[in-house]
Amino acid sequence: MRHRGLCQDPGQASAGAVGASCGVAGAAKCATGLFCKFPSSARCGATNKPGKCQPRPQACTADYDPVCGCDGKTYANACSAQAAGVSIKSKGGCTAP
Prior knowledge:
- By secondary structure, the chain is mostly beta strands.
- 6% of the residues lie in helices and 21% in strands.
- The chain contains 1 helix and 6 strands.
- The chain has a single domain (15-91), classed as Wheat Germ Agglutinin (Isolectin 2), domain 1.
- The strands form 2 sheets. The chain has a 3-stranded antiparallel β-sheet with strand order 1-3-2, with no helix packed on it. A 3-stranded antiparallel β-sheet has the order 5-4-6.
């Protein structure tokens, strides 16, 4: 599958394209406009299971269905987290450590 409009600059020649493995040792970082989407079983990469580079959403609804991002921040919904380039750790807001 090709995504138009997701270009990478020449300095990112080794950056991961859509569908490339990411988020674990030895994997490239995702290219500009993409984020590393982990499966829920990967626990944000803690299990050494890779994510896959996916396009960041360009527009999200204002629906409030909070999620906790892999960065430890609460987002209004999954789309908002992914648009910020963050994979989802869990449903519901993040709790303080």
